[in-house]
Design goal:
Elements (H helix, E strand, L loop, with lengths): L4 H22 L6 H9 L9 E8 L2 E8 L7 E7 L13 H11 L2 E5 L11 H15 L6 E11 L1 H13 L10 E5 L11 H5 L8 H13 L6 H4 L6 H7 L27 H7 L14 H4 L4 E9 L3 H13 L4 E10 L14 H16 L3
Parallel strand pairs: 3-4, 3-5, 5-6, 6-7, 7-8
Antiparallel strand pairs: 1-2, 2-4
Helix pairs in contact: 1-2, 3-13, 4-5
């Protein structure tokens, strides 16, 4: 397996923080994610001497902007970065190592967005904050030394969800520069089937257990904690919508090589009207962008998708890759066979950093450099 002893210790401590958070939530002291946020915010970061960084506000949304100190020949490439954390945890500070590495290695101006988090601000607040910041940057790119026609949006995990949703939304806005590319790292993209091969194979692989990601998603969606056993079994999808979504969300669309570690097809549990009413907004494309219509998909820019073998979200990326390619959108796909979810997030964490963390960064930077030569 790909986990070292130090990483196991970190995941144990994270689990301990989460357990303490549940206890404090039950006492009414604070919600359970406060300690997790604090743990990630206190991981080691480094201030890069080759970059200038400023904390700004884009139309009410806090951001941190990174500029390379070297003088460019003209306007630079721009990057909008959206952090992961299921819309519940994560911050500008926790993303410092990732953002400074991408900005430095790609010689780009990078905007890291500090969107509001659930459960205090449930869906759609986090993604709308990201959309607000993205629109501001696109409109004012030249003020930051950026070519407005060479801006990419980058997101990992739930940040990949936001990046995908924003990219789809922006194709309908005719008064803005078009995004040049979208970069999706381990994205969460659908709520229709939590029994795909990657969910079965990696349901107990840390840090993102199957039940954990669904509980996170429901808390982000509704602001509330609830029993997700029925969601795992598919009881939240009406039979007609289940059949309709099979075109996009089906193990039949996953290449056979990704089923080699085991896959047993299962029918969904009997439909629950009550459960559907609780989570039905989870089928909106701002939350589950894999459900977007083809006429939106075919207008999307060049796309980079990174998937990891030991990640429950692997198949979301594979399904979106197929959907994009079926609609004529160029896709660059990298699959890391020895990595798990959020591998890029451990950049600069010393003994906690995976070898695959740097591989992920290299693939992302190589792609970003390629569209602005």
């Amino acid at each position: 397996m790909f986990f070292c002893t130090c990483c196991r210790l970190f995941f144990y401590k994270s689990h301990l923080a989460s357990t303490k958070g549940v206890f404090l939530e039950k006492l009414g002291i604070c919600h359970r994610y406060v300690l997790c946020r604090a743990a990630y915010d206190n991981m080691p970061t480094r201030k890069d001497s080759k970059l200038i960084r400023k904390d700004l506000v884009f139309d009410g949304v806090p951001v941190r902007v990174y500029w390379p100190k070297t003088s460019p020949a003209g306007n630079r490439r721009g990057i909008i970065y959206l952090h992961g954390g299921a819309g519940l945890i994560g911050s500008i500070r926790a993303s410092e190592n990732i953002c400074s590495s991408i900005a430095r290695e790609s010689d780009s101006v990078l905007v890291s967005v500090g969107f509001r988090l659930a459960p205090e601000h449930p869906y759609p607040v986090p993604v709308l904050d990201c959309l607000t910041a993205a629109i501001h940057f696109l409109k004012n790119a030249k003020e930051y030394g950026v070519d407005p026609n060479c801006i990419a949006i980058v997101g990992d995990s739930s940040g990949g969800t936001f990046a995908t949703a924003i990219c789809q939304e922006l194709v309908t806005r005719q008064n803005l520069p078009r995004l040049r590319a979208q970069v999706l790292i381990n994205p969460f993209l659908q709520t229709g089937d939590f029994d795909l091969p990657s969910y079965q194979q990696n349901q107990s692989v840390p840090p993102l257990f199957r039940k954990r990601i669904i509980k996170f998603g429901v808390r982000h969606l509704t602001g509330k904690d609830m029993n997700v056993d029925g969601v795992i079994k598919g009881a939240h999808i009406p039979p007609d919508l289940w059949e309709k979504s099979r075109k996009l969300i089906s193990a039949d669309n996953i290449p056979e090589e990704f089923k080699a570690r085991g896959y047993v097809p299962k029918a969904p549990a009997p439909f629950s009207e009550e459960l559907y009413e609780q989570v039905k907004r989870g089928r909106e494309t701002m939350f589950a962008p894999l459900l977007a219509e083809d006429d939106i998909i075919r207008q999307l820019p060049e796309t980079f998708i990174l998937t990891c073998e030991y990640d429950v979200l692997r198949d979301d990326g594979l399904l979106y890759k197929k959907q994009l390619e079926d609609n004529g959108v160029p896709v660059t796909h990298h699959h890391l066979p020895d990595a798990g979810h959020a591998t890029i997030c451990y950049l600069g964490w010393g003994p906690l950093e995976f070898p695959s963390s740097k591989k992920c960064l290299q693939h992302v930077v190589q792609f970003l450099k390629g569209f602005y030569k």
